[in-house]
Amino acid sequence: MLEDLNPPAGYYDETQLVYIIDDDDFILNYLSDLLIEKSIHFKIFNDGYEMLEVMKEAPCTIAVTDLMMPKIDGMHLISEIKERWPETDIIVMTGYYKNISYTDVIHLGASDFIQKPFQLDEFEAKIMRIIRERTYKNLLKCLIIFDPLTGLYNRRCFDEQIVKEATRSFRMNQDLHLMSIDMDKLKELNDTKGHAAGDEAIKLVGNVIKNSTRQHVDSAYRIGGDEFIVILPISDTKLTLMIAERIRSNYFSQTNGETTLSIGVTKFIKTSDINTKVIDEMVKKADTAMYASKKHGGNTVVVDVKDNGF
Fold first, then answer.
1. Do 137 and 8 belong to one domain?
2. Residue 160, class by beta-carbon neighbours within 10 Å (0-12 exposed, 13-18 middle, 19+ buried)?
3. Helix 48-57, helix 74-84: angle, nearest 10
4. Distances from the Cα of 184 to the Cα of 109, 226, 276, angstroms
5. 64-93 as b/e: b if 16+ CB within 10 A
6. Where residue 265 sits, what CATH number does that domain have?
7. What whole-number distance in Å separates Cα of residue 197 and Cα of residue 204?
8. Which of 46, 157, 240, 292 could serve as 153's disulfide partner, Cβ 3.0–4.6 Å?
């Protein structure tokens, strides 16, 4: 099931922020009571232009707007929101349903439509449906970029991100390192204790990598099976080796050597152009260093930064 996915904490459990725009204070207070009861963060506005200014600094996840308002009408407001913040969901309120149809507002980009006067339970059903749909949409995004077992990014995400990081490194003339990690003795663990134990060991590798690398700087990926890659931007070889050794030793201390890690490190090769061949060569060098670690019995870090062009 989607709920069994194990992405980074909080990735899909987004905090909802609702903006209510109406020139009728009764409606604002009426809806505010429900949102307070549901512990949903919100702000109220009498003026759509004021709301748009606030959106620049703090975009909402859901906007609830009247259609007939002074200064800026609801249809114009919907267009502005969807053009500038397309991920924002919109619920439209109106008492003038004969002039503007449900189809009109949905076609413009709104998520739902409610006719005034309405009961709070009707509004509650609509906004809670949107919140559920937003949650599932974020879960589906997880399926695209995250590995479900470890919560690390997956191979597809790596293929996209390594090009971005290599391009940034080239343009900014900054160091970029790559770390290839492979588990030692996983087959023996699977054979003796079963694949469930092997899966737990793979999860542990993911947790160790996340806890041993630089938050919001390095990025880790499960490439497949027991193979992992870490991208380390703005990191010289000395720092990269320190991080690699931290991963190796932290994992070893938690497994007592039942399974260990072979780690290979390489540095981005600066060339006159960034292309697939250059990226593939970098990955190959990291893998070659990792396999050299395995040849030495595993549980070691091997570095290959020769002829790197820097």
1. yes
2. exposed
3. 10
4. 52, 9, 29
5. bbbbbbeebebbebbebbbeebeebbbbbb
6. 3.30.70.270
7. 11
8. 157
Residues 45 and 130 in one domain: yes
Examine the pLDDT at 151 and tell me if it is beyond 60. yes
Phi/psi zone of residue 74: left (φ > 0), alpha (ψ -120 to 50 degrees), beta?
alpha
Q: Closest by alpha carbon to 244, among 227, 262, 260, 259?
A: 262
Tens-digit pLDDT profile for residues 58-86: 999 999 999 888 888 889 999 999 999 99
- Based on the fold, state whether residues 120 and 196 are members of the same structural domain: no
250 and 270 share one domain: yes
Per the structure, the count of domains in the chain is 2
Q: Mind giving me the DSSP string for the chain?
A: -GGG--PSTTSSSPPPEEEEE-S-HHHHHHHHHHHHHTT-EEEEES-HHHHHHHHHHS--SEEEEESS-SSS-HHHHHHHHHHH-TT-EEEEEES-TTTS-HHHHHHHT-SEEEESS--HHHHHHHHHHHHHHHHHHHHHHHHHHB-TTT-SB-HHHHHHHHHHHHHHHHHHT--EEEEEEEEESHHHHHHHH-HHHHHHHHHHHHHHHHHHS-TTT-EEEEEETTEEEEEEES--HHHHHHHHHHHHHHHHHHHTTSSEEEEEEEE----SS--HHHHHHHHHHHHHHHHHHHHTTSS-EEEE-TT---
pLDDT at 150 over 90: yes
pLDDT in tens, 121-130: 999 999 999 9
Same domain membership, residue 182 and residue 105: no
C-alpha 297, offset from chain centre: 36
Query: Which domain range does residue 264 map to?
Result: 155-304
